[in-house]
C-alpha cells in the first residue's frame, strides 16, 4: 500500500535532510504528488517518528529485519506503529505481503514492546503514550508521577449547518458535561467521553485529546470543525455584523477563521445592529494558488459559499483600498505569516529525531548466563539469512551556537515584523474601514506588541485616527479573558527611536497592553501560543453597545459604509 511506503520515504528524507515532516508532506514538489491522503500520511509519519526511539528497540531486538527482506527499517517502524498503537491497526488486508511480514511476528514484537515499556517505568501502554507526548503534560495534582495532556481537542460547532443544542443532543448525547477544563484533560488518558462548553467563545467545546470525532458524520459534513480556541479569538473579537458592511479576510487559507467569520455574520442577520441591514459579505484573499483551492474547498464544505467570496491568487497587499470591490469594506481580519512559535507541536515536530532499528539484533541477556540461547533471528528464521548490514544509527544535526541562533532569530523576527506592519498599514488605508483585528500564532513581542505600537505611530494611523479597541469595548468573552498583552513589550516599543528621534504619537502603555489578548502555549487554558488585538476608528461615528456588550460602529444615517497563518500552514481537514 502506498501509505506505508510513502510514510517510510518521508521518515528517510526527514533524517537525511533534517527537515520537518509537515513541510515534506504539504510542500509538494513539481512532478511528485502523494498517492495517499496527506492528512493520513502526515499523522502516520509524525506518530511513527515520535515513537521511533521505542519502536527501534522493539523491531531491532525482535530480529524481524533479519528475516523479512521486504521490510526496510523505516517501513518496519510505520507498520509496527499501526499494528500496536493506532486505533484501526494496519490498514491492509491480512493477506497482504506487508501486513503478513509484520503480523506473523506479532507475539515477539508484543513481548519486546512490553519490555521497552517496563524499561521506561510505565505500568501501562497508556502511561507510555503520555510519556512519549511528554512535551505537553501537566500534573493531575493527585499523584506526583501521573501526567495528563495540557491540550484538549477544541471543537467549533459550525452554526452555518447546525447548532450547539443539536450537537449536544445528537453527536454528544451520550457524553458527560463537566464543569472544568482540567476534568477534560484528566480524561484524555482514559479516553472518557466528556466535554466542556467554553465560557469565552460561543459554540465551542473541549473534548479529551484522545477522542476521535473525525469519522463521525457531523465532522465529515462540516457541522463540526476542529479549531484551537485561540484561533477562534480573531473572528469573535472582530464580531462582524449585518448592516455594517463587508469584511476582508486578508490571509484566509486554510479557512477556519474565514468560516468562523461567516458563521458570526450569518447569525447576526437575524438581529442586525442597524435598521435596514444589508447582508454584507466576506472577501477572502489568498495569494497562493494551491492554498486558494484549499480555501475554496473548505468554504464549500462548511456551507459558507453564500457568505464568502474567495479571491483566489489575490495578494492582499496588491488589493487597492480604493478598488470597487473594497468600497464597502468596514472590517478586516489580518492573520499574517509569522514565526509560528506559539503553535503546539511545531517546535516539537521540527526537533524530532527519527531513530532506526538495528538490522543486527542485540543478543546479550545482561544476566551473565553461560548457556547460549538462540538469537531472535534464529528463532524467526523462515528465509535464508541475508548478509549482515551495517548498523544504522540516528545522526544529530550539530546545533548552532547560542549567539548564531539568537542572531538568526532576531533577523527573522525583524523581517516578519516589517511585513506584518506593512500589512496593517495597508488595512488602515481602506477609507471606509472601521475595525481591524490583527493576530499571530507567535509568542514574541517583536511580532505582537511592537507591531501594534509601530502601527499606532504610523502616518496612516495618525491621519485616519486609528486606535486600539479598548478592553471595556470588547465583546464579553474577550473582555473577560485573563491574559493580556505584555506591558514590558509595549513599553519597550514605545521607547524605540526611528531615524534618530522618537515618534511623536503618545501611547498609553497600560491601555494598549490591556487591549491586547495573549494565550500561553503550555498554560492551563489548553491553548496554543497566540496574540490578538483590535483597532478601531470612530471619526464621525457613534459607539453603540451591542447585545454582547461590545461596540457597534454605526454611521449617522443608520448604515455603515464599507470601507494563518503560520509559515507552512496547510489544510488538514476541518482542524486548526
User: Given this structure, which CATH class of the largest domain is correct?
Assistant: Alpha Beta
Q: How helical, in percent, are the residues?
A: 25-40%
Distance between the termini: 29 Å
Helix/strand structural class: alpha/beta
Uncertain stretches: 135-146, 346-350, 363-404, 497-501, 541-574
- Counted beta strands: 19
User: Overall mean pLDDT score?
Assistant: 80
Number of individual domains = 3
CATH homologous superfamily placement of the largest domain: Vaccinia Virus protein VP39
Strand content: 5-15%
Question: Which radius of gyration do the C-alpha atoms yield?
Answer: 27 Å
Q: What is the number of helical segments per DSSP (H or I, 4+ residues)?
A: 22
The coarse overall form would be elongated
CATH topology of the largest domain: Rossmann fold
CATH architecture of the largest domain: 3-Layer(aba) Sandwich
Main sheet summary = 8 strands, mixed
GO molecular function, one term: RNA methyltransferase activity
GO cellular component, one term: nucleolus
Domain SAM-dependent MTase RsmB/NOP-type: 143-538
Biased composition (Acidic residues): 566-576
Structure in a nutshell:
This protein has 576 residues and is α/β, with parallel strands linked by helices. The chain has 22 helices and 19 strands. The chain folds into three domains: 2-134; 152-224, Alpha-Beta Plaits (2-Layer Sandwich); 232-343 and 403-554, Vaccinia Virus protein VP39 (Rossmann fold).
